[in-house]
From TrEMBL, chain A:
It is found in: Nucleus. Its main location: nucleus. It comes from Anaeromyces robustus. GO terms for molecular function: DNA binding; DNA-directed RNA polymerase activity; protein dimerization activity. InterPro entries: DNA-dir_RNA_pol_30-40kDasu_CS, DNA-dir_RNA_pol_insert, DNA-dir_RNA_pol_RpoA/D/Rpb3, RBP11-like, RNAP_Rpo3/Rpb3/RPAC1, RNAPI/III_AC40, RNApol_insert_sf, Rpo3/RPB3_RNA_Pol_subunit. Signal peptide: none annotated. One of its GO terms (cellular component) is RNA polymerase III complex. SUPFAM superfamilies: Insert subdomain of RNA polymerase alpha subunit (SSF56553), RBP11-like subunits of RNA polymerase (SSF55257). The keyword Nucleus applies. One of its GO terms (biological process) is transcription elongation by RNA polymerase I. This is DNA-directed RNA polymerases I and III subunit RPAC1. Keywords: DNA-directed RNA polymerase, Nucleus, Transcription.
TrEMBL record, chain B:
One of its GO terms (cellular component) is nuclear DNA-directed RNA polymerase complex. It is found in: Nucleus. It comes from the Eukaryota. This is DNA-directed RNA polymerases I and III subunit RPAC2. GO terms for biological process: termination of RNA polymerase I transcription; termination of RNA polymerase III transcription; transcription elongation by RNA polymerase I; transcription initiation at RNA polymerase I promoter; transcription initiation at RNA polymerase III promoter; tRNA transcription by RNA polymerase III. GO terms for molecular function: DNA binding; DNA-directed RNA polymerase activity; protein dimerization activity. Residues 23-95 form the DNA-directed RNA polymerase RBP11-like dimerisation domain. Pfam families: RNA_pol_L_2 (PF13656). Coiled coil: none annotated. Keywords: DNA-directed RNA polymerase, Nucleus, Transcription. Belongs to the archaeal Rpo11/eukaryotic RPB11/RPC19 RNA polymerase subunit family.
Length: 352, 120
């Protein structure tokens, strides 16, 4: 790799600094290189690799895009992909020791398993119905939470026992929320009734004769407004590490070099001269600790870099939206933003 | 139209004082780095554009200003429109490519983490 290619395609890490961090693909940056946007060229160079999918997590690589685009997706995942959360709590009775507002806040943070695509934002329905405020079956899910703590029948009078053995309903869990279908919801959601993602989230504790009687209204919202609406627990990316050995690392040094990296990154093999030599097998596993640069013997033999346009995304869903659907949702949000802007631009042009 | 249903304020305004169509500042309300930086990149990819940059004038005001200056071959409005078109095109291709790879099911799948049923 020439020095120019290195600057264009890699972020370079040295022991005390990182350089070549900015994108270098604006037309005119390099003589003889055509960096003009071309969708056909993009179709050839852009790649997606999905490497891992679990029920709560997805890891995928987006290869061949700029940081500004990748970062837009990351930011949208966190702050602008909608999901459902409890917004209004109507407290009919609360004799527990937890204050109304604390209780309401705790309830708001419970992830709700309901597809946000099945609902409208409240401002959307308000617009459609001519600004008549008030919840409708298109924008609100209602849950009831009615729990009263009582003494357990036949429980021994023994203070050393756990409260759960002495009382019924001494702990209130998210699983005790009961969905109360509104309007056409019962018919529409009969196959997948809305419910909390987890049934074992502790909401509050009660003692005999204390009770809570609440009505909970869930609405559609985005993370920008409140973190409870964020559909992701984490959404992050890192650049693929690339370790370039510029001069052969031989003998005892090879083993020492191997130990500078996490397991599986570098291996020691016997080269054709019968000597031990180090080579890179899986840079993806590297944490880029830069340990090898602390040793004088490796300083001029290795270049630690990251591939500028290779983004390894790790996205963990909160549970309402399956992880594989999160990126498409984010991309659609960005497309929608552009379309809204295009419409405004056209309106301005017409006016002039 | 924005998240609060506020229709009174325009989404986009063009702040330009000169009669030169080659330069303009686009002021977009209710947007931030997410859109502005991506859009800035796409507009810069156009060789007819001489300069494109963006700023958020004040952190508590949900507004970005995108400045575009072009050569005489095009106008700032055209460059903005092309930038938006290119960004949409890029996004649509990412969707196609991602869904294609997802359908191949060529990945490590692990039941782990959630015991709740995901009915996609």
């Amino acid at each position: 790799m020439t020095d120019l290619e290195l600057l264009k395609n890699r972020v370079v890490l040295e022991s005390d600094r990182v350089y070549s961090v900015s994108s270098m693909d604006v037309p005119g940056t390099y003589p003889g290189v055509d960096d003009t946007w071309d969708i056909e060229r993009f179709k050839k160079t852009f790649k997606v690799v999905i490497s891992e999918l679990t029920k709560g997590n997805i890891e995928f690589d987006l290869i061949g895009i700029d940081a500004s685009i990748a970062n837009a997706f990351r930011r949208i995942l966190i702050a602008e992909v909608p999901s459902m959360a409890i917004e209004d709590v109507f407290i009919l009775n609360n004799t527990s020791i937890m204050h109304d507002e604390v209780l309401a806040h705790r309830l708001g943070l419970i992830p709700i398993k309901a597809d946000p695509n099945d609902f409208s934002f409240r401002w959307e329905t308000a617009q459609k119905n001519g600004n008549t405020q008030g919840p409708t079956d298109a924008d609100t899910i209602v849950f009831k939470l009615q729990v009263k703590c009582t003494n357990k029948k036949g429980a021994p009078k023994d203070d050393s026992l756990e409260p759960s053995e002495l009382y019924d309903n001494s702990s209130v869990y998210s699983g005790q929320m009961i969905w109360s279908p509104q309007g056409r919801q019962e018919e529409f959601f009969k196959n997948s009734p809305p419910r909390p993602v987890y049934d074992d989230i502790l909401i509050t504790k009660l003692r005999p004769n204390q009770e809570i009687d609440l009505e909970l209204h869930c609405v559609k919202g985005i993370g920008k407004d409140h973190a409870k609406f964020s559909p992701v627990a984490t959404a992050s990316y890192r650049l693929l590490p690339d370790i370039i050995i510029t001069k052969p690392i031989l003998g005892k040094d090879a083993e020492k070099f191997q130990k500078c990296f996490p397991e599986g990154v570098v291996e020691v093999f016997v080269n054709k001269d019968g000597e031990k030599e180090a080579r890179v097998v899986n840079p993806r596993k590297d944490t880029v600790s830069r340990e090898c640069l602390r040793h004088a013997e490796f300083k001029d033999k290795v270049k630690l870099t990251r591939v500028r346009d290779h983004f390894i995304f790790n996205v963990e869903s909160v549970g309402a939206i399956p992880p594989q659907r999160l990126l498409p949702d984010a991309v659609k949000v960005l497309i929608e933003k552009c379309k809204v802007l295009k419409r405004s631009l056209a309106q301005i042009n017409q006016a002039n | 139209m924005n998240i609060d249903g506020n229709e009174n304020e325009a989404k986009l305004k063009i702040l330009s004082s000169s009669s030169d169509e080659g330069c303009a500042t686009f002021s977009i309300s209710e947007e931030d780095h997410t859109l502005a930086n991506a859009l800035r990149y796409m507009i810069m990819k156009n060789p007819k554009v001489e300069y494109c940059g963006y700023s958020i004038p004040h952190p508590t005001e949900a507004k970005v200003n995108i400045r575009v200056q072009t050569s005489e071959e095009t106008t700032a409005v055209e460059a903005m429109n092309k930038g938006l078109d290119d960004l949409i095109e890029l996004c649509e291709h990412i969707l196609v490519e991602y869904n294609e790879k997802l359908d191949l099911k060529n990945y490590k799948y692990d039941e782990g983490v959630f015991d709740t049923e995901n009915k996609a």
